[in-house]
Amino acid sequence: MKQSLLPFIHGLTTLLLCLGAFSVHADITLTASDEQQINALVDRWNDVLNRAENARPQSLYAENVEWFGKTLPAQQVIANSQAFLAKNKEYQQRIVSTLNIQPVSESDDRVMVRFVKSAGLETFKEKNYPAELQMRKTPAGWRIVSETDAITRANQNKDVYAGVIKGKFDGKNSSYAWMSDADPRTGGMCTEESDCDCTLWNSDPHVKPVKISQCLVGHMEMLSGLDDSGRDRVVAFPEWWTSAMRVVYVYDIQQKQWIKTMSGFSMNINLQEAASAADLVKRDPQHPGKVKVTQATFDEAAEEATTEVVSQTLLTLK
Hints:
This protein is of the alpha+beta class. The chain has helices at residues 6-18, 32-49, 74-87, 150-156, 277-280; strands spanning 23-25, 28-29, 61-67, 70-73, 92-95, 100-103, 110-120, 127-138, 141-149, 164-167, 175-182, 197-202, 210-212, 216-223, 233-239, 245-254, 257-260, 265-268, 281-283, 290-299, 304-313.
């Protein structure tokens, strides 16, 4: 899939999901009780993986489960999880974000539950992961039909998945970055009638997530070599419901925090549909610490959208 099509596809998918928000099927609508049961199922799943007393894995899964890219019977998933926990007795995990529950666009009876978990064999070695559980309502109640995380999906589908990127964003340590979006008032799914903010995450739990206002998740690219710091940059291309104009953001990690390393700049998806991060932001060889940015603008005289190249300074914390 061409990367230039990703913003359009994401925007179209998101729009389709939000038509009739919380509708999972023509005859099924998520009720408050459904949401309560889904939250309770995630809690039980978390309890099982944390070896909580009286935790019962048999109540978690449907008959067959897509488990980290493999289709397995539920009993095999349970056996695999129990074997992992028996081998890694120090493993623990925590859910560190709200749950985002959305219909699955390719299915008429599933919901996707996304959240961030912090997990590891030792507390000081925990990492953040963008967890993904798909669920289906069965006669016995809601059950998990798919379990994975976006980092695993990115590594399994490197040529087609742009939701997670890897780089040395602090100039030293490799880590993963991704974005999520949610209604800032409810923490739930965004709709055209609601506000929507994005959150930029890092797999290092010591790097606090940052908010990007008026944002739907688009795609991200990793950009290297803008200066001699060794820091790779996250170039984020958020989406929005309307308009061809978008704001592009560039971040890196300094002093264990996400830093907007330069001002956001405008992009016109009609004029710059095929433009990559490397096309839009280039190192200025004549001025160390500066970059040349090709941004969208509007020519008042000609009454048309156009582009211009401007200079920006990369922010470095002292």
